[in-house]
Amino acid sequence: MKKRIIALPLYGIGDVLMSTPAVRNLKEQLDCEITYLHMFRTTHDILLNNPYIKQNIFFPFLTSSRLEGIRFLLQFRGKFDCSINFYPSNRSDYNLAAYLIGSPLRIGHRYVVRDLVEMNFLKNRTVVEDDTLHNVEENLRLLDFLGINAKEAYPLDFFPTEEERYFAREWIKGKGIESRMLVGIHPGASAFKNHSRKKWPETSFASLINMLSSELRDCAFLLFGGAEERDIRQQVVAFVNDTKKVVPVDFVSVRQAASLIMKCSLFISNDSGPMHMAAAVRVPTVAIFGPTNPQWVRPWGVPHRVVRACESCNPCFRYSPIPMRCVTGRDFACLREISGEQVYETCLDLLREEA
């Protein structure tokens, strides 16, 4: 008899993508049906067409009342053998969701920060988070509770449709850049929990584009990000010398954006969801890190380089509902002190290696 497994809400696109190696292992090594429940439409959409998932469900928890959310969760009570709170899920709401669904096996982590107040004790099969592991590896650890010992550390999964591939080709053709080398850039970051503070300055991205533009003469730069980040893209363009080489990617869906990233030879990004999208579509990536820990969330399963300043205080961020803040009061100098030249040399080094 197939085991019925439900994966409960994670925070963002990157977290969801970093759970896909574990999902693939589950489906390949266990006779099971996997349901994935989302609180964001974008995370739901990024998993569309994934062959390892039986049901992919979105519910607007953030815009619904608590009572509506409870009623929605209670419809699943008694219908699953196991619930998994993939890493990181250090929030009381996620643990309460697992408790309300009431699966006999409730799998997840115990956390170093705010473990009790976030009710992680409501899970009944747990491991303690390990600072030395990547999030993908943290998720694979949870499969031990289901008897899966031999695990493959697969790359992240994204499955584009033929229509999405066609969209990317036509979009690039429409911009007149189909014969150019494409470099993708994400200069933004999520606004939730003050994560917008983990982005490299817009002027630094513009300086980087100016340097790369001189070196890679026959190239175009695609600026990615959500609708809420359009101002950031515009600020980058405002400081670029040759704006004809810069193409903002506006008014596309998250899946269309991923399909466009597939066309890039290189992706440059802050620690963000699009960084993990680039890894999922196998594009070499240069990742710029400040307060977050690259050991946990560096690009997985793809050639990459991490750029960071050598600050004694970073990384300072831990997984919890507490908003990000600079622990030194220096307004995230760990990002501002990364030079354009440092990222430029790193990009060229990665391109030379991939060539």
Strand order of the biggest β-sheet: 3-2-1-4-5-6
**Percent helix range:** 25-40%
Q: Quick check: average pLDDT?
A: 91
Main structural class: alpha/beta
Uncertain residue segments:
none
Q: What distance lies between the first and last C-alpha atoms, to the nearest angstrom?
A: 49 Å
Order of helices and strands: EHHEHEHEHEEHHEHEHEHEHEHEHH
Shape: globular
Using DSSP, what is the number of strands? Answer: 12
CATH architecture title of the largest domain: 3-Layer(aba) Sandwich
Number of domains: 2
**Main beta-sheet annotation:** 6 strands, parallel
CATH superfamily of the largest domain: Glycogen Phosphorylase B
Under CATH, the topology of the largest domain can be stated as Rossmann fold
CATH class of the largest domain: Alpha Beta
% residues in beta strands: 15-25%
Given the structure, what is the number of helices?
A: 14
- Rg over CA atoms: 20 Å
